[in-house]
Amino acid sequence: MTKLTSVSALEALREDILSRRDPKKTKVSVCSGTGCRAYDSEKVIDSLKAKLLDQGLNDKIDLVTTGCHGFCELGPVMVVYPEGISYFKIKPDDIDDIINETLSQGKVVDRLLYVDPEGNVITKEHDIPFYKHQNRVVFGSNQSIDPENIDDYLALDGYKALATCIGSLSPEEVLEIVKKAKLRGRGGGGFPAGQKWEATRNAPGDVKYVIVNADEGDPGAYMDRSILEGNPHSVLEGLLIGAYAIGCQKGFIYIRQEYPLAVEHLDRAISQMRELGLLGENILGTGFNFDIIVHRGAGAFVSGESSALMSSIEGKVGEPRPKYIRTSISGIHGCPSDLNNVETWANVPIIINKGADWFTSIGTEGSKGTKIFSLVGKVNNTGLVEVPMGMKLHDIIFKIGGGIRDGKKFKAVQTGGPSGGVIPEDMLDLPVDFDALDKVGSMMGSGGMIVMDEDTCMVDVAKYFLEFLADESCGKCVPCREGITQMLHILRMICAGEGKPGDLELLEEIAAMTKECSLCALGQSAPNPVLSSLKYFHAEYEAHVNEQCCPAHVCKDLITYHIDPAKCKGCGKCLRNCAVGAISGSKKEPHVIDLEKCTKCDTCFLVCPPKFSAVTKLSGKEEL
Amino acid sequence: MSQISVTINGEHIQAEEGMTILEAARGAGIFIPTLCHHEQLESYGSCRLCVVEIGTGERKKVVASCLYHISEGLVVETETEKINGFRRTILNLLMHRWDNIPAILLEKYGAKSNERFIDNMTYCILCGLCVRFCHEVKGANVLGFIGRGTIRQVVIFPNQSAKYCASSCPDEMECLHYCPTGVISSQYYGSRPADGQALPHAAPVCINEDLNILEVLERVGHV
Amino acid sequence: MSYSLAKVDQIIDGYGADKEALIQILLDIQHEFRWLSRETLMHTADRLGLPMNQLYNVTTFYKHFSLVPQGRHAVSVCVGTACHVRGATRLLDRVAQGLKLSPDETSADEKFSLKTVSCLGCCALGPVMVFDGKYMSNPTSNEIAEIVEECE
Is residue B218 scored above 80 in pLDDT? Predict the structure, then answer.
């Protein structure tokens, strides 16, 4: 590749790439994101590649291996363009039919199409409810891009926004656009990005840094990873634009080493940028200099906190700094440092290309643009969804998510991860909006949206988050370390049937102190999962404390496993699968569980055929 | 440094610009409790006992006075019901690591141990005074933290102690005087090791050169 | 794999023996040898001019570092929130029972290491176990026992 020395050279390269591409040519896009890889998408791709080559079709058909398409529930996912035919749950054995029917004759392979809950077969992606109600501004281009090929990004107007900024706008003008767009940080807090940029720009000092926070720590969210895996250049372009507006020559990307594919794609993208002269000295001949260092995080949730993240970049333990001074004023090495998360940076080029007015036309008064969520848990359509701000939670869960699995009843949705809270059914009309979610004791967070049904115990969920935080707290300050220790201990006792009157008030007392006195945001938000579930599901806590009953049948110490003799047909499946030999019974006779031997591993419950559903869990005073 | 005026508990006070609230208050003879603070060392902000309320009305907020710098006209309350309640909760929690917290503190804030809390009587409250003294003042790094979250602890690194203890503290182990709970002097050692000698392995936990790493990790709770 | 300080030196030199690259250096060493021995830590401390207490602080703070050798077969159970609400605790119990290991433990013969991870991004499969890179959705006790038996 030759270095691009001017904005016009970049445009010439783009034209050259486009001239070699025929929009009418058949293109097959197959997802190879981490989710689809778990379903063996790589075997599908290898098989498709080999067979296209075998049949001499490799010149006639473009195969694009892409990042995440979003509909992870039905992976591996494939889209055939230009028609937009969507295939799901593809196995290597399906490749022959796809080639012989679709790619050779333009016929659709019915069995691989999406079938909606009413039984309607849907061919095109944009007609599928999961996609239809989304607005995939940031995430949509994933399926047209091979993340290892910068040409794909350039073909979609990649680096055009950068060229506009460094070629014809002053840094102040760029800053004004971002401020006018009212872009708020997608990492959790929702702080206005333009304001943060401005503070860093105006802070005294010659050396300043820009940083990508890709330390996605919420244990139920993976949208940042999917952006970096699928479209790394969008984040890098945003970072360069930010650097130009703020006046930085060096940037960092703090990325979890647990995301090896994202690191790989990022490294590749950066070296391609260097080759093209999009990084380094005098970028596009404009006099703008910028370079990037990738820093892999070694596994610490607290390192997502801005000052802790900066300590990590300096090679130290990722503990939050105790100072009351913003990192935009004093960050890495005491220099002004602007930190934004992956999704925030990825929004920047779009804002520049489409304008602040276009951006503010999407969303609510206080929250503009779109937000990507990982819609997971007990929902039918698990996956990544991008919706305009202001969409009701109900619509996300039921229209896009297709409602609750197995016909169960919705109970709550958790947003904001370990810093957020649970939202009950009667609040599902809430719009997705930074301030609206804050008001009810949850938060937008980075975008985890975990749907819970009647089989989810809210006390157990609160305990789960505290267990996570007990491990992930840095342990420095007393409110967080000791507060979490004792709150967790109390919750463990409650879940073990050893709850006592007064425990709930004690939890509230510790939570209030931890919330206000902790040193950093991790501790200050740590009580949220406890406080919000106490507020909306108080009765469930009371059942645990007063009746030793777990109504959702989750808390192991409060439940027993039984086989309903009226339902058991003696098929013997549970007996054969029980790892501890706790089940006895003769063939075709109702079986019995020996409660002394039972370890409550749940295997019998899982293997009992649904047509019998004879294994039952009982808690408290419940009887068969 | 120029003088600025602040209001603490309704009292107008002149203090030097650049001071923390804690410094300004103590300078004026106003008591704010601390466990992890020492004038000689950088503020650390871990015990949070020094929290105070600043601002007025809707804009009131809780800050750690050892870290928050004063500004002209700042309004501070050090003993509100809310703040004293927080201090009581903090002391209640700490009593399960250290059961002989000075009675004067416990009485002032009405703290008492709670039978619903789990005991972790290490007598180390992780204030880091010993670690910070050894690092900031002596540059010896004999003491350090390991682990994180609820298993964080202070340990002694014997190879460092063999190298630096004798030269850094020629007369006596000065870190002993910094420990608010007395756990270092009571559980570790009385006298300073001779030149080239390492400190004995010490409770509650330490990384000891003589131990194989697996055993150490077992003691540290990592395996 | 046996330890080679030459390899460690090569990694350190790759970062220009920069103190600030400590975490990156340790990650590379960990990647190369799958754990960090005391010998390596002392060598790294020497080369970078850092005190040992800082190295132990860092290596016991970040979860990815292992100060013990890892098993030949890596078993991870996802305990992310989505998997949790779908029964990850029970799955973890079954896996621990099948391997006779506690989470974060390695068997004495260094055959298996059991770890928990937070969100693998394949929530649709949850609760998920990853056995030597192979993803399995909510395996039963018998299925786990079968894989364990197949392992060398």
Answer: no
What's the distance, CA A525 to chain centroid?
Answer: 19
Q: What is the ipTM of this complex?
A: 0.92
The fourth-level CATH superfamily of domain C73-150 is: Glutaredoxin (3.40.30.10)
Mean of per-residue pLDDT scores for chain B? 84
Q: Selecting from 3.30.70.20, 3.40.630.10, 3.40.309.10, 2.120.10.30, what CATH number does the domain A558-619 have?
A: 3.30.70.20
Whether residue B211 is predicted with pLDDT greater than 60 in this model: the reply is no
User: Taking 60 as the threshold, does the pLDDT of residue B204 lie above it?
Assistant: no
Is 70 exceeded by the pLDDT of residue B216? no
From chain A, the residues in CB contact with B87 under 8 A are: none
Please identify among residues 54-83 of chain C the ones whose CB lies closer than 8 Å to any CB of chain A.
54, 57-58, 61-65, 79-82
Model confidence band, residue B197 (pLDDT cutoffs 50, 70, 90): low
Q: Is A438 helix (H, G, I), strand (E, B) or coil?
A: helix
- Write down the pLDDT at residue B189: 52
User: Which of A74, A227, A263, A317 to mutate against chain C (most C CBs within 10 Å)?
Assistant: A317
Q: Which long-range contacts (CB under 8 A, 24 or more apart) does B6-10 make?
A: B6/B70, B6/B71, B6/B72, B6/B73, B6/B74, B6/B75, B6/B76, B7/B73, B7/B74, B7/B75, B7/B76, B8/B76, B8/B77, B8/B78, B9/B76, B9/B77, B9/B78, B9/B79
| A387 within 8 A of A371, measured Cβ to Cβ | yes
CA A203 to centroid of chain Cα atoms: 33
**In sequence order, what DSSP letters do the residues of B105-146 get, joined into one string?**
HHHHHT----TTSPP---S-----HHHHIIIIIT----EEEE
Closest CA to C55 of A50, B159, A88: B159
Which chains, if any, share at least 3 CB pairs under 8 A with chain C?
Answer: A, B
pLDDT above 90: percentage of residues in chain A:
91
Q: A607 and C65 in contact by Cβ < 8 A? A: no
In angstroms, the CA A65 to CA A94 distance is 17
CB-based contact C56 B144, cutoff 8 Å? yes
Using CB atoms, list chains with 3+ pairs below 8 Å to chain B. A, C
How confident is the model at residue C121, as a pLDDT? 76
Distances (CA, A) of A4 to A273, A275, A284: 10, 9, 6
User: CB burial class (10 A; 0-12, 13-18, 19+) of residue A565?
Assistant: middle
Which residue's entry shows tokens 């370890």?
A599
Which residues neighbour B29 within 8 Å (Cβ) at sequence distance 6 or greater? Answer: none
Q: Of how many residues is chain C composed?
A: 152
- Give C108→chain A minimum CA distance, Å: 23
CA A55 from chain centre, in angstroms, equals 39
So what's the architecture of A370-453 in CATH? Roll (3.10)
Cβ distance of C82 and A450 shorter than 8 Å = yes
Query: How far is B159 from B199, CA to CA, in rounded Å?
Result: 9
The C-alpha atoms of residue A411 and residue A537 are separated, in whole angstroms, by 10
**CATH match of A22-130 with 3.40.50.150:** no
Q: Say whether pLDDT at B194 is over 80.
A: no
Positions in chain C short of pLDDT 70: 1-3
Helix ranges, A381-457 (H): 393-394, 434-439
Cα–Cα dist A496/A311, whole Å: 39
B150 to A509: CB separation less than 8 angstroms, yes or no: no
Tokens of A167: 């070629």
List chain A residues with CB under 8 Å of B129. none
CATH architecture of B3-79: Roll (3.10)
Rounded distance between C-alpha atoms, residue A207 and residue A608, angstroms: 65
Fold exhibited by the domain A158-359 = Rossmann fold (3.40.50)
- Does B223 score more than 70 pLDDT? no
User: Of A476, A494, A590, A490, which Cα lies nearest the Cα of A549?
Assistant: A494
Strands B51-54 and C128-131: unpaired
